[in-house]
């Protein structure tokens, strides 16, 4: 009987150590301009809706943004559609969100950051993005990081996509 209980406990530990976490990482959508970098432009608002359209059926459990209005505005259409609260993380250091995401298991997350942080977040989660940097006019990058954990291993995969319509200057 003790062997059966031990075997069942071992099986439970084995099964609970397996998980897949999916992290969608985006930069905030288009801002009005450099004189008003706090709000999204009309194009940015449309891109935020496009993000919601893209991710609404992906099983998002949690949404994280920096404390800036433009990141929050980028996530609000999706949060509203899914009935989720937006959690805030500090924009620096990038390790703050990487550590937080690293502790999450079996969830699907959206992380909204900035041109100078989203590649660092993707790299910090164990990937190698092909882009060397996010240009000032790039707002359509969608990085999908899948973290698979097994009892004896961990693998991380990255898909680099785009979403929404290209903006016109």
UniProtKB/TrEMBL annotation:
Pfam families (alphabetical): His_Phos_1
CDD domains: HP_PGM_like (cd07067)
PROSITE patterns: PROKAR_LIPOPROTEIN
InterPro entries referenced in this protein's UniProt entry, alphabetically: His_Pase_superF_clade-1 (IPR013078), His_PPase_superfam (IPR029033)
Name of the protein this chain belongs to: Phosphoglycerate mutase
Taxonomic classification: Bacteria, Pseudomonadati, Bacteroidota, Cytophagia, Cytophagales
């Amino acid at each position: 009987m003790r062997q059966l209980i031990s075997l069942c406990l071992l099986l439970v530990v084995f099964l609970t150590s397996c998980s897949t976490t999916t992290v969608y990482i985006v930069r905030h959508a288009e801002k009005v301009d450099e004189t008003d970098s706090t709000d999204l432009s009309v194009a940015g608002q449309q891109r935020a809706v496009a993000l919601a359209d893209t991710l609404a059926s992906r099983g998002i459990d949690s949404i994280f943004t920096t404390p800036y209005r433009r990141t929050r505005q980028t996530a609000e259409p999706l949060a509203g559609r899914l009935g989720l609260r937006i959690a805030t993380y500090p924009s620096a250091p990038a390790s703050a969100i990487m550590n937080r995401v690293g502790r999450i298991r079996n969830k699907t997350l959206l992380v909204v950051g900035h041109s100078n942080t989203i590649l660092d977040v993707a790299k910090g989660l164990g990937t190698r993005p092909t882009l060397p940097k996010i240009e000032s006019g790039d707002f359509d990058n969608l990085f999908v990081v899948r973290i698979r954990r097994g009892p004896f291993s961990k693998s991380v995969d990255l898909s680099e996509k785009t979403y929404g319509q290209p903006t016109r200057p």
